[in-house]
Write a structure and sequence with these properties.
Blueprint: H1 4-15, H2 23-73, H3 99-109, E1 117-123, E2 129-137, E3 142-151, E4 166-168, E5 174-182, E6 194-201, E7 206-213, H4 231-238
Antiparallel strand pairs: 1-2, 2-3, 3-7, 4-5, 5-6, 6-7
Length: 259
């Protein structure tokens, strides 16, 4: 009996002796197959890229259409005007100047170095006149200074005053001066009291009168030869723009008790 393991190699060799492997054909077929696969992959890649580009363009166009549609549909907005809140204004209430304020103005207008003492005030309360007085002393004797301011009928000329005492200024104000004259000019002058008076009448009816004595009181013994302030100093005080005059007294004003 023939051994199969011994005869099998001979049988296989005999069966394949006349066979020639088509090696060139197999190689060529493999190359062609590779080219086909590469072209297919390239085509698929190109198609994918084109699809992505088209998708992007579609998104952009679609977004533009949406924006355009929104712009067309959205109604025009009216600019909002912001109005600042109204701040209430408080108008200053006009009130008559008080005698105390008149005294304060007189004190401010005194020449430097003079400290007033024993000040007094009167008037106000709708009377149309404020009055004040201060006692001055420069070390050479006490000297009383009195003040009266009022609003009344305008004085426009010098007819009411003695000759040589009145001057009309360019602004129309009437300036009257009685310089260092005896308190009593038509008879005995007890106590030797002398006075210097300066009066200023403005065209608007405001009037101011300043009187300075050479004594601490109008009716007393004199304490110095002449009043402390000169006529020029009194005129400077009278012409100051710091004065605030009381309103004119009403024609139907009725003074109350104690006025």
């Amino acid at each position: 009996m023939t051994n199969l393991h011994d005869s099998l190699p001979d049988l296989m060799r005999q069966a394949t002796e006349d066979l020639q492997p088509a090696t060139p054909e197999l190689v060529a077929r493999g190359i062609r197959r590779g080219k086909v696969l590469r072209r297919r992959r390239t085509a698929l890649a190109g198609l994918s890229g084109a699809t992505a580009v088209l998708a992007t363009v579609g998104v952009i166009i679609g977004g533009s259409q949406v924006l355009r549609t929104d712009a067309q549909v959205e109604p025009a907005t009216t600019p909002t005007v912001t109005t600042a809140p109204t701040v209430p204004t408080h108008r200053a209430v006009s009130r008559p100047v008080t005698p105390a304020e008149t005294l304060a103005t007189l004190t401010r207008l005194l020449p430097n170095g003079l400290t007033p003492t024993n000040s007094t005030t009167s008037g106000g309360y709708g009377l149309g006149t404020n009055e004040a007085s201060v006692l001055l002393d420069d070390g050479a004797g006490a000297s009383l200074l009195t003040l009266s301011i009022t609003t009344a009928d305008a004085v426009t000329d010098c007819n009411p005053f003695p000759p040589g005492t009145c001057t009309i200024h360019a602004d129309g104000s009437v300036h009257v001066v009685y310089d260092n004259q005896p308190l009593y000019t038509d008879g005995p002058n007890p106590g030797g009291v002398r006075e210097t008076i300066v009066e200023l009448f403005r065209p608007n009816g405001t009037q101011i009168s300043l009187t300075n004595y050479n004594a601490p009181k109008e009716k007393s013994e004199h304490t110095r030869p002449s009043p402390l302030l000169t006529a020029a100093q009194l005129a400077q005080i009278a012409r100051s723009t710091q004065w605030v005059f009381p309103p004119r007294q009403a024609d139907d004003f009725q003074p109350g008790p104690g006025s």
